[in-house]
Specification:
With about 500 residues, the protein is mainly alpha-helical. The chain has 24 helices and 2 strands.
Length: about 500
């Protein structure tokens, strides 16, 4: 055993390349050339003296000499630095393994192929078809006869190759802007792959492809892609799930880059495809923090900012105004964002829709320690004032009822005006309901008419309709006693106006 490693050290790249070149020329030293190359580049990145022709010459020499394991070692080291050989060499390597019947090398060859494609190796579809359809390789996969190499530790050969082919096809579809073809490739991957993490990796590539600049600036690649994916009814959950995740990533990206119209169309496509995107996550690490509340808010805002108030409202209604739950918690920032979007939406909707929007502000229906609903009082009172001024009295009455039931302070002057207008328009049933509700929560502390007590005291500030409602209430609660009084009784009703 020699005490020297016989491997160039850091900084000796020029010496390494020269040595490898010299050893390649000597058939007795080819394996030593492989050892020198892998020994140096395992620990050092390629520098100015790295030579792609030397690498290819080394690979061809090793393959010609039949040193497949050394070929794999050199490829493994070069791939760690994202350096790939030509597809001609890969095809020759496949052919060599096939011709020599090296079935035990198939799993490692498949892993290397996948890494090459992931690192950017562009393969021709003819090359892939040639490899995939080789009978010996198909036999290797399907054979269970004794003595055959078991592939239990690695995915089967066709799946790896199909995956590599799919990556290549996706790249070709991107260059050709053939989004429908990409949809077919995606569906094929989902149907054939047994490994969701591989589908996730492919889906990430598809997102990047769909975000690429296309010749038609107005088109949405995702629309044609999703339409093709959803052609067959009853697809398995994996297809819908990853289609939704692709859509979520696109939606968040378009939102971040202020491409409101494209983001809105992504949401529309997902809704048409009946994909419940709000329960899904994006495909990239920086999207994991998006809660369900956040996704619904983003989708709503995409409609709002692209000019579709109806679309924004429908998005919230379809998702039942969801905020949070034990399964889908949200952050304080999510609640703030929802409040901001709802306030902006409330300014643009009809009076009835505005009330629905305000009723679903965070903290209103589901009390939350993080939200102080008293800050919503000006919003509700402003809406109430507009409804009263514009004679939208049914909506104004519903607004007051909701405010009173949720302990949101009502502007007393606007309440009086509402009751006055309800009375003048002979809407007495509604006027009674509003007055009774207001009285029960303390808005008329000076008005008191307990049953059986024949006296009513009313404060001077009551308006004409409020006085009429108070008198009616006074007579109604004492109706039983009044009907039982004889004509000769000296008892009477007493009404005192307090100045």
């Amino acid at each position: 055993m020699c005490r020297f490693q016989h491997v160039p050290v850091e900084g000796d790249e020029k010496f390494c390349v020269e040595t490898v070149t010299r050893f390649i020329k000597n058939p007795m030293c080819i394996q030593k050339a492989s050892a020198v190359f892998t020994g140096y580049y395992q620990n050092n990145p390629p520098g100015v003296y790295f030579s792609m022709p030397v690498l290819l010459t080394l690979l061809w020499a090793l393959l010609k000499a039949g040193f497949v394991s050394d070929v794999f070692s050199v490829l493994g080291v070069s791939l760690s630095h994202k350096i790939v050989p030509s597809y001609e060499f890969l095809l020759a390597l496949f052919n060599f393994v096939r011709e020599k019947g090296l079935t035990g090398s198939v799993p490692e060859l498949m892993q290397l192929t996948f890494k090459m494609v992931s690192a950017g190796l562009v393969l021709s579809l003819d090359c892939l078809d040639c490899v995939k359809n080789t009978p010996d390789f198909q036999q290797t996969v399907h054979s269970n006869s004794p003595g055959k190499h078991k592939l239990s530790t690695s995915p089967p050969f066709p799946e790896y190759l199909n995956l590599a082919q799919s990556i290549v096809e996706i790249e070709l579809c991107t260059k050709q802007e053939d989004w429908r073809r990409m949809g077919k490739v995606f569906r094929s991957i989902c149907q054939s792959s047994q490994h969701p993490n591989q589908v996730e990796q492919i889906s990430g590539r598809i997102v990047i492809a769909l975000l690429s600049e296309s010749k038609d600036k107005l088109s949405l690649p995702f629309a044609a892609f999703a339409e093709t994916v959803c052609q067959n009814e009853g697809e398995d959950n994996l297809i819908w799930s990853f289609l939704g995740r692709i859509g979520v990533s696109l939606m968040l990206r378009y939102y971040k880059t202020h491409q409101w119209a494209k983001g809105r169309r992504v949401v529309e496509v997902l809704s048409i495809s009946k994909v419940n995107y709000s329960t899904l996550k994006g495909l990239f690490g920086n999207e994991d923090g998006a809660s369900r509340c956040c996704l619904i808010t983003v989708a709503t805002e995409l409609f709002l900012l692209s000019g579709s108030v109806e679309g924004a409202l429908n998005t919230l209604q379809e998702n039942k105004w969801f905020l949070s739950s034990c399964s889908w918690p949200c952050e304080p920032a999510d609640l703030d964002s929802r409040s901001r979007v709802l306030m902006r939406l409330a300014e643009k909707t009809s009076h009835r829709d505005t009330l629905e929007v305000l009723c679903n502000l965070p903290g209103i229906k589901e009390p939350n320690d993080l939200v102080d609903i008293s800050r919503y009082s000006p919003l509700f009172n402003s809406h109430l004032r507009v409804c009263v001024d514009r004679q939208i009295l049914p909506v104004a009455s519903d607004t007051v009822d909701f405010m009173l039931s949720q302990n949101v302070a009502v502007d007393h002057a606007v309440l009086q005006t509402l009751l006055h207008k309800l009375g003048k328009q002979n809407l007495w049933l509604r006027a009674r309901e509003v007055f009774r509700h207001s009285l029960s929560v303390g808005y008329y502390p000076g008005v008191s008419a307990p049953p059986g007590f024949m006296a009513l005291i009313v404060p001077w500030r009551l308006g004409e309709v409020e006085l009429a409602l108070a008198f009616e209430m006074f007579i109604t609660v004492n109706a039983t006693i009044i009907l039982q009084l004889s004509e000769t009784t000296t008892s009477c009703l007493s009404i005192t106006l307090k100045r």
